[in-house]
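task queued by scheduler; priority normal; single chain, no ligands, no partner chains; default sampling; output format set to C-alpha cells
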Amino acid sequence: MASSTAARRRSLHSLAPTEALELGGGLSLSPRVKLLLTFFRSDPAVKPIDEWKLKLALLEFLRENPLSLSVPDDDLHLRRRPDLHKRKRDEPVATGTLYVRDLGFLKGKGQEGADEDEGASRKKFFDWRSSFVEQLAGIDLNLEGVKYKMSVEIPPADDFEQLKNSWEDYYASQLLDSRRVFARRPDTIIVRGVPSRWFAEPRVSSKASMLVTHTIFSSLGKIRNLNVAADDDLGMKSDESKEEIISGLNCKVWVQFESYDDFFNAMKVLCGRSMQKEGSRLKVDYEVSWDKEGYFRSVQQKDSRNHRQERDMARHTRNETSTYQPHATFDSYGARRKRFRE
C-alpha cells in the first residue's frame, strides 16, 4: 500500500506540463495554455469595434510566422465591453480569452532519442510560455484605420508557482501573527466549473454523486474529506457572463487530502489543464484554487455547535419534565375530588 502511494506521488510529481493524465471514469486532463487578453484604443477614434474582424486579425497573426500556432476559431473568445460611449480614453474596449491546446511541438527528445526528463520538459514549456506572452503583449492591431493595443496576462489559477507563493506567504503571515512554533500548510483544493453530469451516477441522476466524485479525485491522492455542491454563481462577478450560466449544470468540489504532498501534486497537475470526457468533444476549462477559509474546519465546528445545542435542548426538556408535577386535591376521606358533580 505504501509503495503504491509513493509510486503515485512520484508519477504525479514528475508529470510534464505537456502531458495528459487519466483520472478514471472516462475523464482526463489535457494540457493547455490560457491567456487573458485586453484591448485598448491607440488613437482617439470613436468608431464602433467589430469583434469578428478583430478576431480574424488576431487569428491570422497567431497562425503566421514567427508563431505558427494551430489555434481553432473556437479557442479564441472576444467580447466587447458594454457602454463604450461612456468609457474613458484609457479604459479597455474589449476583452478576450485565448487557449493554445496543441502543445505537441514542445515534446522534444533527448540526445539519444529518449523522452526528455521532467525538469527539462518543464523548463522548455515555461521558457516558451514566457516568450509567447512577451511576443503578444503590446502588439498593435490595425483594423480599417483604427488601431488597437493588446495586453496579455496568465490567469492566477493557471500559474502554479504564483499559487504556491500565495499559500506560502499567507501561512507565513499567519505564523507571525499567531507566534506559533510550526506553520500550518494547506490541504484542500477547490475545483469549480465542471459539469455535474460528468460526476453523476449513469442512468441514475444528472446531479454530481459523492461516490463518483471521490473515486475520480482519489486518483490524485488519499482523500480525508470531500464535498460537492451546485456552482450556479460561477462567473457572476462578471456582467458579461450572467447570461451564460445555466442553473444546475456545473458543480463545485472541495477535496481535502490526507497529506500536504498529495495536495501539492494535485494542485500542480490541475493547473494549466482542461478536463475532457471520453466520447465528448467538449473541453472544460475549470477553475482551481486552494482553500484559505478552512471550509471543512468551519463545517465541523458548525456541526459540533449544532450537536451541543441539541444536547442542551434535550437536557433542558428532561429537566422541565422531571420538575413538573400535576396538582391534585383530595377530600377528607382521602379520595380524589372530581372535577364535575355526578
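post-processing summary
- The chain has a mean pLDDT of 82.
- The two ends are 83 Å apart (CA to CA).
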